[in-house]
């Protein structure tokens, strides 16, 4: 089925209601590497049994945390084979610190569909409130679908972020585990691209790759720990473009520049000649 922007854009998708617990938050943050030093009190703040501090990136998994099936890319006017899809970009804005446990409601719609020629980009916006209607977070997520362009749509804007022409204020190396993707998939993303070697090979990768949202969360945590004294409540917004793949077990180099009201960040894989992992990364301070 070809993409039909006239049907897709503005299409309202089913409302989702969901709950999460402190244990869900702990598992998510363990899947990002929290607790790697179990004697570090700053690390243990992410893993408190009653009230763990919550990284804003938890918003990306909260609604689907208990999913056990691979996702489908099936929306009004859009039907795409999962093997053709990679995550394009992600943005989260939190309207208050995310509670350690709660119930919420998310409404979402397709807001943009771009024709990149050989590929298509589909942008979805999510608005999440508690069950009384108080805003919790807003998110925007794009997917990049290879081979699905050429339908005659607009190409879309470029939103690149220029990094300062100076040395970063912070640099940190962040190792990932060989089983990192297998752990992260327990947070609700069961896409076989991250666990099944045959499926990954069919999608053009030599091995299963780390979830883009796992890299996204790992880099956010590294920035919070390094530049914000491990205080996640200081984050208002966080966005990034997925610029390349990361394989479980690789080490990330995270570089951070401090600016007024925000951090600019890059993440790359030094072992592959600095191959980019995340680009156009901006963390906005509360």
From TrEMBL:
| Transmembrane domains' residue ranges | none
Top-level lineage group: Bacteria
- SUPFAM superfamilies in UniProt: Thioesterase/thiol ester dehydrase-isomerase
**What are the MaoC-like domain coordinates in residue numbering?**
163-260
Q: Which InterPro entries match?
A: HotDog_dom_sf, MaoC-like_dom, MFE-2_N
Pfam families registered for this protein in UniProt: MaoC_dehydratas, MFE-2_hydrat-2_N
- Domain named Peroxisomal multifunctional enzyme type 2-like N-terminal: residues: 18-147
Name the family the entry cites.
Answer: Belongs to the enoyl-CoA hydratase/isomerase family.
Q: This protein is called what?
A: MaoC/PaaZ C-terminal domain-containing protein
The organism is Rhodococcus gannanensis
């Amino acid at each position: 089925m070809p993409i039909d922007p006239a049907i897709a854009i503005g299409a309202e998708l089913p409302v989702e209601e969901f709950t999460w617990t402190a244990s869900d938050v702990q598992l998510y943050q363990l899947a990002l590497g929290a607790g790697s030093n179990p004697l570090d009190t700053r690390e243990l703040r992410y893993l408190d049994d009653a009230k763990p501090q919550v990284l804003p990136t938890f918003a990306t998994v909260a609604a689907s945390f208990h999913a056990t099936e691979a996702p489908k890319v099936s929306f009004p006017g859009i039907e795409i084979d999962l093997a053709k899809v990679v995550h394009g970009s992600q943005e989260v804005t939190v309207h208050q610190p995310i509670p350690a446990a709660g119930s919420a409601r998310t409404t979402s719609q397709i807001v943009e569909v771009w024709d990149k020629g050989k590929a298509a980009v589909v942008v979805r916006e999510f608005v999440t409130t508690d069950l009384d209607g108080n805003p919790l977070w807003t998110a925007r997520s794009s997917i990049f679908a290879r081979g699905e362009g050429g339908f005659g749509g607009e190409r879309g804007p470029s939103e690149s972020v220029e990094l300062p022409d100076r040395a970063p204020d912070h640099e940190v190396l962040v190792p990932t585990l060989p089983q990192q993707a297998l752990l992260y998939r327990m947070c609700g993303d069961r896409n076989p691209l991250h666990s099944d070697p045959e499926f990954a090979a069919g999608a053009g990768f030599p091995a299963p790759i780390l979830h883009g949202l796992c890299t996204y969360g790992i880099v956010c945590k590294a920035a919070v720990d390094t530049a914000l004294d491990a205080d996640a409540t200081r984050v208002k917004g966080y966005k990034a473009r997925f610029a390349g793949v990361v394989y479980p077990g690789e080490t990330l180099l995270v570089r951070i520049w401090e600016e007024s009201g925000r951090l600019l960040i890059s993440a790359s894989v030094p072992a592959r000649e600095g191959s980019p992992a995340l680009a156009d990364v901006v963390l906005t301070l509360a």
